[in-house]
Amino acid sequence: MTKGAIGSWSERKPRAPLNDDERILSGVLRHVRESAEADAPLPGEHRLAELLGCTRQQIRHALTQLESQGIVIRRQGASTMVDPLALRLSARFDARVEYGDVLARMGYTPSVEVISASFEPMPEDIAPLLTPDVEPVTARIVLRWFADERPAMIGTYTVPFPAGTERPFIDPTRSVFEIANDLWSEAIAWEVVTAGVTALSEEQAPLLEQPVGGVAKMWQIVGVTLSGKRIYHAHEVHHPDLVTYSFVRTVKEPWNVTWR
Predict the structure, then answer these.
(1) Alpha carbons 226 and 228: distance in angstroms, whole number
(2) Which residues contact 35 (CB under 8 A, 6 or more apart)?
(3) How far is residue 181 from each of residues 186, 225, 257, measured CA to CA in Å?
(4) Is the alpha carbon torsion for 193, 196, 202, 204 positive or negative?
(5) What is the dihedral of CA 77, 82, 86, 91, to 10 degrees?
(6) What confidence tens digit (pLDDT) does each residue in 70-86 have?
(7) Which residues form the HTH gntR-type domain (predicted)?
(8) Cβ 10 vs Cβ 122: under 8 Å
């Protein structure tokens, strides 16, 4: 592959294979999510072991992990219950995690598809949000993530090149964090995320298997390095139902409140 090209890619890229413990934990998480949605107890250890093709000891180990995170509540002689509030913290709005890991924490099997990848002029609406001293052409990568076999998110990623550098070879199947790091020799330290909703366009709706004009969650993200360089922009459109995102915020202590 020559310099200054976008790499080729396969239609779908599954997540790296799980080891046995990860597979069992993922399977239990799937049942945890389904039980939370149905407001029902989790199946018993014996039934979970049958469903996941493992031993009860392996199930107990997975449940112990989830209990330590507060996701399940176990009491001697009673059904194991799911805490739906704690489950929401598996997808934290205020914590940067690869999207495939977010889906896996919810008990889904994630995979990703590259819809398109190309070199494009810097969009006028994005340029003011990014570091100014860049080449006029950017890398534009559009990905579609799947949760099991259901489309979960469409992400459009714009990554500029430092001014004065040659157009590089880019593998669009790699993480946008890795691509930006390679181009700028700096890792992303934090992100500015603006959340909202959007009406699905004729292009977006079929990709998410939703009606045109339907409402979806939308994030705009700018990645910032420790030195303050803003080196990528993301526009993500999320399926309205598959993942619930949460964040934790602190509350002032009562003795610091001024009463009027």
Answers:
(1) 5
(2) 41, 42, 43, 82
(3) 5, 9, 43
(4) positive
(5) 140
(6) 889 988 878 899 988 88
(7) 18-85
(8) no
